[in-house]
Write a structure and sequence with these properties.
- The protein is mostly beta strands.
- It has one domain: Tumour Suppressor Smad4.
- It is built from no helices and seven strands.
- It has a four-stranded antiparallel β-sheet with strand order 4-3-6-7, with no helix packed on it. Strands 1-2-5 form a three-stranded antiparallel β-sheet, with no helix packed on it.
- It is globular.
- The N terminus is likely disordered.
């Protein structure tokens, strides 16, 4: 399991294009099934939600898989929810904690 936080990496922009990701996972050398634009976390009326951005292998939130096969999907986030990224077993597991 990967411990710690996501890494913020400044990527050069091409022309006037805007960045598509704010945070990037750093691959430790092993090829993993994580999409370049895998998911985003956004504010919703009732708190936060995770939006799978049509990833190939999907995202798990509190044991519920969304996305995969480029379908996408949205699920509400609650404090303590475990987020698993890509195929299972995955080294990328994080706990969602709202600081509000």
């Amino acid at each position: 399991m990967v411990e710690g936080v996501f890494h913020r990496i400044e990527r050069p922009r091409r022309g006037d294009s805007s960045p598509t990701n704010e945070l990037y996972l750093v691959d430790a050398g092993e090829e993993l099934q994580i999409s370049r634009e895998h998911f985003r976390i956004e504010r919703a009326a009732a708190g936060y939600q995770l939006v799978d951005r049509r990833s190939v292998c999907g995202t798990s939130v509190a044991g519920k898989w969304i996305g995969g096969e480029e379908k996408g999907g949205t699920v509400p986030l609650r404090d303590g929810d475990e987020i698993r990224i890509g195929v299972d077993p995955t080294p990328f597991r994080y706990t969602f904690i709202s600081l509000e």
